[in-house]
Design a protein that fits this description.
The protein is 45% helix and 17% strand. The protein has 14 helices and twelve strands. Bound molecules: nicotinamide-adenine-dinucleotide. Belongs to the Glu/Leu/Phe/Val dehydrogenases family.
Length: 407
């Protein structure tokens, strides 16, 4: 499996090939400001003591406090967290929000923990990192396998330890713990605004056939938003398998089935396929919304979509980018496509600092304006540089970060 941090560095070098920027910037931006490894002891329900490995990477704060989610996954390691932190710095610059980039994680399969163990682990993560996070220093949020409930434990622990109860240290909190309206759906919603802004320019039809890889916060809500707008969901997957139907899946029934049985398997009215096969399903838009490294050199030539719309972080490797480009498949890059999540997180931070609470309508009006403006800006940049949308997005982000670094 390719190293995601190496992929991120390779993307930086590829962007430099289409728009030059100072070599000193590349040197500095290729290394995180700080990389923290922690061990979190948790008393398990059976009385044993277990140590979990955790991480926080603070990549760059030239434009504002480090910002980025916390991932709980059995495969999470420092290379993954470093890549995600670098992408966060670029993403915040793409959205032009006053935040830098960071990311956190714990190597754990949270499905194997009881609620009590999960709470102890989450409070433990804060206890070990309390000195390096804070509303003006570093503001974590949810990512894969973490959610508002976990953020509520974390913000409570931080408040108890520091006396700062503004809530601005963590975003993605439940609404009654200072969370923002719209944060739960912001990643997919922001993605949908980007999609609408670019749909015609990318040569997509009015009604698109859409495949979604991943059925969590990003993927499940994306499937709902695209379907509600009249598009047809022709395939969807979770970590264990996938469903396909060229006539269109009954999304609501699929989700009800997953909620009732815990998996997509056994759903009547669709063909069961593998996650690998999902990538090859003929469609207009493929939305990877699971994990990184899903579209690679060894499978990119089988992608059946006209456009890959990256709601996940890092789903396409640089090698796959070249193959997709040669096949005429356009890629809307993660640092643009999924930047709605961190944008509304930043709105949440701003509301907490000002002690305000915005309506969902206000949140989405502001989000739409940002997503449309930045999507069109990146499209125009790609035309001006005769390059793909990823390199164009990197160029814009790098210009903004380099300026803030005085380079
Ligand atoms: P989540 O934990 O809510 O859901 C992840 C989903 O992916 C689950 O349905 C899981 O079953 C599925 N999955 C895992 N491995 C898979 C595989 N190999 N094939 C298919 N499906 C698989 O996580 P999420 O918050 O939806 O995050 C998904 C992606 O979106 C990640 O890359 C994350 O970094 C990115 N993202 C999320 C947000 C956010 O606000 N949640 C913001 C920006 C980017």
């Amino acid at each position: 499996m390719s190293n995601p941090f190496e992929n991120a560095l390779s993307q930086l070098r590829r962007a430099k090939a289409v728009q030059d920027f100072p070599e000193d910037f590349l040197t500095r931006f290729s290394t995180p400001d700080r990389e923290i490894h922690i061990s979190i002891p948790v008393r398990m329900d059976d009385g044993s003591l277990k140590i979990f490995e955790g991480y926080r990477v603070q990549h760059n704060n030239a434009r504002g406090p480090y910002k980025g989610g916390i991932r709980y996954h059995q495969d999470t390691d420092i290379a993954e967290v470093k890549a995600l932190a670098l992408w966060m710095a670029l993403k915040c610059a793409v959205a032009n929000i006053p935040m830098g980039g960071g990311k956190g994680g714990v190597t754990v399969n949270p499905k194997n923990l009881s609620d009590r163990e999960l709470e102890a682990l989450s409070r433990g993560w804060i206890q070990k990192l309390v000195d390096v996070i804070g509303p003006k220093k570093d503001v974590p949020a949810p990512d894969v396998n973490t959610n508002p409930k976990i953020m509520a434990w974390m913000v409570d622990e931080y408040g108890k330890m520091t006396g700062d109860t503004s809530g601005a240290v963590i975003t993605g909190k439940p609404i009654d713990h200072g969370g923002s309206e719209g944060r739960g759906t912001a990643t997919a919603q922001g993605g949908f605004y980007v999609f609408e802004a670019l749909q015609e320019k990318l040569g997509l039809p009015e009604v698109c056939r859409v495949s979604v890889q991943g059925c969590g916060n990003a993927g499940q809500i994306a499937a709902r938003l695209w379907e509600q707008a009249g598009h047809k969901i022709v395939a969807i997957s979770d970590s264990r398998g996938a469903l396909a139907n060229q006539e269109g899946l009954d999304r609501e029934a699929v989700i009800a089935h997953k909620e009732a049985t815990g998996s997509l398997s056994g759903f009547a009215g669709a063909k069961e396929i593998t996650n690998e096969e999902l990538l090859a399903v003929p469609c207009d838009v493929l939305i990877p919304a699971a994990l990184e490294n899903q579209i690679r050199g060894d499978n990119a030539d089988r992608v059946g979509a006209k456009v890959v719309f990256e709601l996940a972080n890092g789903p396409t490797t640089p090698e796959a980018d070249d193959i997709l480009f040669a096949k005429g498949i356009l890629v809307v890059p993660d640092i643009l496509a999924n930047s709605g999540g961190v944008t509304v997180s930043t709105f949440e931070w701003e509301q907490n600092l000002k002690n305000e609470h915005w309506t969902e309508e206000e949140v989405f009006i502001k989000l739409k304006e940002i997503m449309e403006r930045e999507a069109l800006g990146i499209y125009e940049k790609s035309q001006a540089l005769h390059t793909d949308l990823r390199r164009a997005a990197f160029s814009i982000a790098i210009e903004r970060i380099a300026k803030a670094m005085g380079m």
